[in-house]
Design goal:
Layout lengths: L1 E2 L5 H8 L4 E5 L5 E2 L2 E2 L3 H10 L3 E5 L7 H10 L9 E2 L1 H11 L6 E5 L2 H9 L3 E2 L11 H8 L6 E6 L7 H11 L5 E4 L5 E3 L6 E3 L2 H11 L4 E2 L5 H11 L8 E5 L2 H11 L2 E5 L6 H5 L11 E3 L2 H12 L4
The structure holds magnesium ion.
GO molecular function: metal ion binding; phosphatase activity
Cofactor: Mg(2+)
Keywords: Hydrolase, Magnesium, Metal-binding
């Protein structure tokens, strides 16, 4: 684990020549929620000038691929729409490959996720009402109102989640033939404010897992399905040592890169701090190969090494 700025010119040249594809996390690397990170678009553009393929990645399904692409464009990132990856396209690909085309899906997730699934041709089961009469009788009657055609349950960030819909998920998942998929498993998230946590969707995945004794199949970063999707779509990982993952989270990005045996660059513009590096509390294999303050530094280093050749 080295500060990228301490490398000699020769070492930097070797580093920048050591990868062809960059898997770049979005939140905390390119921007923090709505605030762009200064220098990030320059860095992506200089990596592209060096011939690197850039694939951007987020676990956030509250935003559509179109919305991400638009926001990237507005922030001066020249990224193809097909190079924006979230658990949504991974889920669609998984459902298609596993023949869920004519089967019903029950979704605990945002309208954005549901719309993307519908647009991809999937039929969604109805969710329960937003409010019910607060009696056990009413709850019992709604909970037993199952749709027999449901073949899969998907749990992701659902900002309007409620007891009835969680129970519906529990009811469907008691049938072993019903597939159980999930998006991000974070139990805590930060929304741009360090040291202030918000409730992550992983807690709800756990509720369903604990209640039904089943394990959800992950579609987000750190999951086998996400890795397979990246491999199929971008031939990423044919030679994993020639992929660089840039991320701001140790527990998500660095772990995912370690699992896929990609090279790891940690930026300190999002979740992680210098003190996380100094008081390392994770297994050794998750340590980044290099770290930098932000992508701005990456841009400056590329200019320093390749300036006249770019
Ligand atoms: Mg991030």
């Amino acid at each position: 684990m080295r500060d990228l700025t301490t490398l000699t010119i020769h070492e930097l040249e070797n580093f920048f020549n050591s990868f062809d594809q960059v898997l770049c996390d979005i939140d905390g690397v390119l921007w923090n929620i709505v605030q762009n990170i200064p220098g990030a678009s320059d860095a992506i553009s200089s990596l592209q000038k060096l011939g690197k393929q850039i694939i951007t990645l987020s676990n956030n399904t509250t935003k559509s691929i179109d919305a991400y692409h638009k926001q990237l464009k507005e922030a001066n990132f020249d990224i193809e729409k097909s190079n924006v990856v979230t658990p949504t396209p991974v889920t669609i690909s998984y459902l298609r490959k596993n023949n869920f085309a004519n089967k019903k899906i029950f979704v605990l997730g945002t309208t954005v996720l549901k719309d993307a699934l519908k647009e991809a041709g999937f039929v969604l089961a109805d969710n329960g009402p937003d409010r019910i009469e607060e009696t056990c009788h009413q709850f019992a009657s709604l909970s037993s109102d199952d749709d027999d055609d449901v073949a899969a349950v998907i749990v992701d960030l659902d900002l309007n989640i409620n007891y009835v819909n969680l129970q519906k998920g529990v009811s469907y998942l008691q049938k072993p033939e019903v597939e159980f998929l999930c998006g991000a498993r974070d139990e805590k998230n930060t929304f741009g404010k360090k040291n202030h946590f918000v409730l992550g969707p992983g807690n709800f995945v756990k509720i369903l897992e604990n209640t039904t004794g089943r394990d959800a199949i992950g579609m987000a970063k750190r999951s086998r399905c996400m890795n397979e999707y990246l491999m199929e779509k971008f031939q990423m990982g044919k030679d994993p040592s020639r992929v660089l993952l840039i991320g701001d989270s140790i527990s998500e990005d660095m772990v995912f890169a370690a699992q896929c045996t990609y090279q790891k660059l940690l930026v300190l513009s999002g979740l992680s701090t210098v003190s996380d590096l100094e008081k390392w509390a994770f297994p050794e294999e998750y340590k980044p190969d290099f770290y930098v303050e932000s992508l701005k530094t990456v841009h400056e280093l590329i200019e320093k090494v390749f300036g006249t050749k770019l």
